[in-house]
Amino acid sequence: MVTRAPLWTSRHQAGLALAEAFADRRGHRGDTTLVALPRGGVPLAAAMASRLELPLVTWSVRKVADPRWPELAVGAVAAGGVVVWRHGAGGRQPAATATEHGWLRDQERERQRRQRLFGDPPGDRLCGRHLIVVDDGIATGMTAEAALLSLRRVGPASLALAVPVVDRQVAGVLGRLVDHVEALAVVSDLQAVGLWYGHFEQLSDRQVLALLEAARRACDHPHLRHR
């Protein structure tokens, strides 16, 4: 529970550190899948996939925000029609505003675009598998909550959340949605995930696709990992 930042030079380094916590799943390709939340979760999950010899997929989720204040999320949307709002049942006003102004519709369209582009699997491909959901950090927790609720619907054998840094209060909320939370740093009043990394670039679609393709090649041909 470290309180000093930054802790990792890059998402890749943080992913390797997370892999150590799941060493018991190494090589369990037959029943375990890493599920990255794009875009930020992909570099971590790719590093974990290489170290643990596990398949990697994406599960697209989008936050809903007022375009005037894009960093202030009021909700999030995930596959299967899952939508969560800030303050839960008390979020009726943000929900009504986001729906009326088309913010929810726009983010669902973007989520579907990413779902197609990154090749998110159909839910039945994940049914009965041990899923390890990976993100690069969690401050408000709305996108992670939407993703976890959506993935729980596919019927996994177990659902774990792996994240380098997470807000302490949010960790308690998300912990009720999964079988296990693995967090390298739990921080009170986490404001900005990027502060915990020496290098925290915004990833492009092209970079994400390149990481996914490399991970898939390595999974199909394990000897490539050792070149």
Your description of this structure?
By secondary structure, the protein is an alpha/beta fold. It contains seven helices and eight strands; from the N terminus they run αβαββββααβαβαβα. It has helices at residues 11-21, 41-52, 92-100, 103-118, 142-152, 168-175, 205-220; strands spanning 32-36, 56-58, 61-65, 73-78, 82-85, 130-134, 158-167, 180-187. The strands form two sheets. Strands 2-1-6-7-8 form a five-stranded parallel β-sheet. Strand 7 (158-167), helix 6 and strand 8 form a beta-alpha-beta unit. Helix 1 (11-21) packs across helix 2 and helix 2 (41-52) runs parallel beside helix 7 (205-220). The mean pLDDT is 91. This is Phosphoribosyltransferase. Keywords: Glycosyltransferase, Transferase. InterPro entries: PRTase-like, PRTase_dom.
Task: Give the topology.
Elements: H1 11-21, E1 32-36, H2 41-52, E2 56-58, E3 61-65, E4 73-78, E5 82-85, H3 92-100, H4 103-118, E6 130-134, H5 142-152, E7 158-167, H6 168-175, E8 180-187, H7 205-220
Parallel strand pairs: 1-2, 1-6, 6-7, 7-8
Antiparallel strand pairs: 3-4, 4-5
